[in-house]
Amino acid sequence: MNDDDRLRWGIAGTGKIAAAMTEALRTLPDAEVVAVGSRTPAVADDFARRFDIPVAHGSYGDLWADDQVEIVYVASPHSHHHEMTIAALDAGRHVLCEKAFALNAGQAREMVAAAARNDRFLMEAMWTWFIPAVVDVKRRVDAGEIGELRVVEADFGIPVIDEGGRHRRADLAGGALLDLGIYPISFARYLAGDPVAVRALGTIGPTGVDSTLGGVVSYRSGAIGVFHTSLDVRSTGRATVIGTSGRIDVHWPFWHPTSFTVHHHDGRTEHVEIENQGLAHEAAHAMERIRGGHRESDVIPLATTVSTMGLLDEIRAQVGVVYPQEREE
Q1: Residue 160 in 3-state DSSP?
Q2: In this predicted structure, which of 52-66, 161-175, 178-192 has the lowest mean pLDDT?
């Protein structure tokens, strides 16, 4: 493949997830990372040196304006996703935006509108929906291998001690839900379909963000999703998918697993192992859609992303979490 055939990426952010995506893109022969942007020139320069990226921009505005960049990966804290995504779209760039997609559904709708008015591709970077083992679990559920789906259980909790870190900061839209809880909620939605209602309870920590919460989501399919998430404790990180004639145990970490076990009610057990390439799967899908002339994913459509943000809004409302930016609005 010639260099001209590659889709040229710009990385907006220099944190751990930006580094992970940059590494993933380097494994794809049809992708090329041509630029990185940061608020600080020195930080951008350091990231560019680490990953042999040709251009380092000391501002995000310069990254959006770089005509060598065709698609931007927004890897900032989600408190900045709305502003950065719209700016990149308005500059004519396609965007793959890390989860959580925005602070709330209102912001998500504005991001979708920006993609439409600029005729650009936009997708939420929920990598779980593209991990081969998870895709195979869905195939089995849809094929009726465990009967009719009734329950999806999943949890994600990790202890975050630093009260000053982004996970605990209200001004950066911290809290367990948008950082961690979005995974069990999105995992269940991938398998069960559109949600109908949610009931949630939780604890708000001293910094004003949710520290531990859990709940139950009902779906139009008749299934329910049971989830919990926490910044206070380490949970199992596994998921269980339960049907009328069997269950599937998705092993840790369920959000990007390499194995699962199918238990049938007749006593049969099947252990499945499927390797994955992490973030590369969602990036490859985005590029395939862009090359096909599409402006959204057919796996995780923008309407699905917006409604998931609405579900997260409702959970926060029930628990009592409001971000400072929302009060200002």
Answers
A1: coil
A2: 161-175
User: CB neighbours of 232 closer than 8 A, spacing ≥ 6?
Assistant: 157, 159, 205, 211, 212
Pairing of strands 210-219, 224-230: antiparallel
Beta-strand pair 239-243/149-157: antiparallel
What are the structure tokens assigned to 3, written together? 């260099």
Which residue is it, tokens 């395939």? 288
Backbone angles phi, psi at 182, to 5 degrees: -60, -25
Q: Which of 134, 137, 127, 136 is nearest to 282 (CA)?
A: 127
Angle at 187 between CA 181 and CA 190, to 5 degrees: 140
Q: Sorting pLDDT into bands at 50, 70 and 90, what band is 328?
A: confident
For residue 320 the two structure tokens come to: 């009592």
CA atoms within 13 A on the CB side of 68: 16
Distance from C-alpha of 261 to C-alpha of 294, rounded to nearest angstrom: 36
From CA 242, how far away is CA 249, in angstroms rounded? Answer: 9
Report the chain's C-alpha Rg in angstroms.
20
- 260 with 251: CB under 8 angstroms? yes
pTM > 0.85: yes or no? yes
Whether 154 and 254 have beta carbons less than 8 Å apart is answered as yes
